[in-house]
């Protein structure tokens, strides 16, 4: 079990950029794949991006490909989500989570979640 805390959210205009950070404390951060999910009002939580334990493999939802980049720095126990060309439909609470194995696309495969950080994109 680890503790995760997201930061870097805020208000940005359409076309702007934000960089989210997820700081981890606890044990064995570097041995697990990590993912980002988001949830907008009235919608279910959806997959955004994931990265394997070494950072060599990344995965993205079709809606963010080419705009978002996930990365990690195991020495700093931190995973990042660089978000460029933001759109109003990106507005949501963004959550960082630790994967327990299996599909990175399924939220049920994650056992630890941060409290989330709000991203609001104005039109």
What's a concise summary of this model?
The chain has strands at 2-7, 10-13, 18-26, 34-39, 46-51, 58-60, 68-73, 78-83, 92-99, 110-113, 117-122. Helix content is 0%, strand content 52%. The chain contains no helices and eleven strands.
Question: Can you describe what's shown?
Answer:
The chain has no helices and eleven strands. The chain is an all-beta fold. The strands form two sheets. Strands 2, 4, 5, 6, 9, 10 and 11 form a seven-stranded mixed beta sheet that branches.
Task: Sum up the structure in keywords.
single chain, 123 residues, mainly beta, seven-stranded mixed β-sheet, four-stranded antiparallel β-sheet, 0% helix, 52% strand, globular
What sort of overall outline do the alpha carbons produce when their principal axes are compared?
A: globular
Uncertain segments: none
Question: What is the gyration radius calculated from CA atoms?
Answer: 13 Å
**How much of the polypeptide forms β-strand, as a percent range?**
over 45%
Helix and strand succession?
Answer: EEEEEEEEEEE
If you average the pLDDT, what whole number results? 95
The major sheet is characterized as: 7 strands, mixed
Distance between the termini: 39 Å
Count of beta strands: 11
Enumerate how many helices there are, as a single number.
0
What structural category do the secondary elements indicate?
mainly beta
- Helix fraction bin: under 10%
């Amino acid at each position: 079990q680890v503790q995760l805390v997201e930061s870097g959210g805020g208000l940005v205009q359409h076309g702007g950029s934000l960089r989210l950070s997820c700081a981890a404390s606890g044990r064995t951060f570097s041995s697990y794949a990590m993912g980002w999910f988001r949830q907008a009002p009235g919608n279910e939580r959806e997959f955004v991006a994931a990265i394997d334990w070494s950072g060599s493999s990344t995965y993205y939802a079709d809606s963010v490909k080419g705009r978002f980049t996930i990365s990690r720095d195991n020495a700093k126990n931190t995973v990042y989500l660089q978000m460029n060309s933001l759109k109003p439909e990106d507005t949501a609470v963004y959550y960082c989570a630790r994967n327990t194995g299996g599909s990175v696309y399924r939220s049920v495969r994650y056992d630890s979640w941060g409290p989330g950080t709000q991203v609001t994109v104005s039109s």
